[in-house]
Amino acid sequence: MRAPVTDLPIVLEDVSFSTGGVTILDRVSLALTAGSPTVLIGPNGAGKTTLLRLIMGLIPPTRGRVTWGGRERAAPVHRAIMFQRPAMLRRSAASNVRYALAAAGVPRAQRASRTLELCAQVGLTGLERRPARKLSGGEQQRLALARALGKEPQILLLDEPTASLDPAATKAIEDVIHAVATGGIKVVMSTHDLGEARRLAGEIVFLHRGRLIESGPADAFFSAPKTEEARRFIAGELLV
Q1: pTM over the 0.90 mark
Q2: 96, 98, 152, 158: least surrounded by Cβ within 10 Å?
């Protein structure tokens, strides 16, 4: 029997990305493997969102290469991404999920039951018929998570999923992320919140000015950072 196709490890080799004459990422080398969540941290403008887009395969690198499971060309069948401000379709929460399931190729006969399962998974049971655009900010983020999970991804990419949310909404999102990661999905997410990084990360990737400054196990990063930039960032100093 053939081994199941996987996009892991995702390997970036000397990857740079520039646009309009501005270098957003500069010679980043990184390997993402199965296991606990990888959390990207760094100041605004460090390149976190661009790195997620490269990992997803939405943009090609200006130089270097990205491989998914050893392949340079791999359709994002096994990957899903949730952006910081996901768009809500002008329909109910359930219809948003059903649309995502249809796009993922889920047979029509399975969509209704799968929609209920996904809404329950992200804590939206009872809100399925509510217009998506009338949900709270935290509920919309959980709905976006349900849509992404409808693809049954191996790798889930999240761009600051709790930005601007209150503590209760943040905890609800973090609970879903923890459950998803425990279930075997590789989570790669960015955050501006060091507390969130401590709570969720198994691995930290610290970016500054488009460069990968430091990466490694989260416990070691926070207890004994190796670089001056990381020490200052953890201490709450502004990096410019």
Answers
A1: yes
A2: 152
* Alpha-carbon distance values, 15 to 30, 188, 205, 230 (Å): 9, 18, 15, 21
Let me know if residue 24 belongs to a domain: yes
Q: What is the pLDDT of residues 31-57, one digit of tens each?
A: 999 999 999 999 999 999 999 999 999
In order, the DSSP letters of 62-86 are SEEEEEETTBS---GGGEEEE-SSP
Place of tokens 């130089």: 63
In a domain, 225, yes or no: yes
Q: Give the Å distances, CA to CA, from 100 to 68, 87, 114, 149.
A: 23, 12, 11, 9
Range of the domain at 179: 10-87+153-234
Total count of domains within the chain: 1
**Residue 100 falls inside a structural domain:** no
Hey, CA dihedral for 202, 207, 210, 211, is it positive or negative? negative
Q: How many C-beta atoms lie closer than 10 Å to residue 89's C-beta?
A: 15
Give the closest residue to 49 by CA, choosing from 157, 186, 167, 165.
Answer: 157
Per DSSP, 224 falls in state: S
Which amino acid is present at 92? S
* DSSP H helices in the chain: 48-56, 93-103, 108-121, 137-149, 167-182, 194-200, 218-223, 228-234
CATH of the domain at 47: 3.40.50.300
Question: Which of 182, 115, 172 shows the shortest CA–CA distance to 142?
Answer: 172
pLDDT in tens, 122-180: 999 999 999 999 999 999 999 999 999 999 999 999 999 999 899 999 999 999 999 99
- Phi/psi zone of residue 172: left (φ > 0), alpha (ψ -120 to 50 degrees), beta? alpha
